[in-house]
Prior knowledge:
Layout: H1 13-16, H2 19-46, H3 49-71, H4 76-107, H5 113-134, H6 142-171, H7 175-207
Helix pairs in contact: 2-3, 2-5, 3-4, 3-6, 3-7, 4-6, 4-7, 5-6, 6-7
Amino acid sequence: MSGSCSGGGCATESGLNDPRWRRALWIALVINAGMFALELVAGVSADSRALMADALDFLGDAANYAISLVVAGMALVWRARAALLKGVTLIALGLWVLGSTAYAAVLGASPHAGTMGLIGVLALVANVGVALMLYRFRSGDANMRSVWICSRNDAIGNVAVVAAAAGVFGTGTAWPDLVVAAILATLGLSGGFQIIRQARGELADTARPHAHPAE
């Protein structure tokens, strides 16, 4: 909720405009936009649904960071609405990936394990760096928490992509790739629902008669 603290304290209005917070978002935005382009090309060339799913996740995160930069200095009600949009986006991407994975399972796929492993490790390094950079902001409002959740999920997802590459190499089948793609989609759905739940709570707080209009 808007007035709660956990793990490391509360986010304040001045904290949302902290130059360190905005600088971290800019760095995360550039990294995620670049990795989206790289993973999308690699995913198509390697016929890997897991890489494609991770590429779309990078795209969603880049958009999320851009939104966070825009609303960082706005009232809580606008930050909560932006967080709602992020949550809905995560859920939409998760459903898309699940559908794409089911389609590939029916038609068949031949992912290239070497490309999956190389790009997966590079993406893991990028996401761990971003997650560590944003770790200090994980206990803020729904908007700040959503940024942390996205980064955390990405790092976990990249470990799974690397494991899928090993599985594809070891088994000679596409199933490890498809299973990981489904896991990434489920992780995105879970994160989206978490963000929406907290954002709705903050919107409810701002709607109460005693709520300050600038909160």
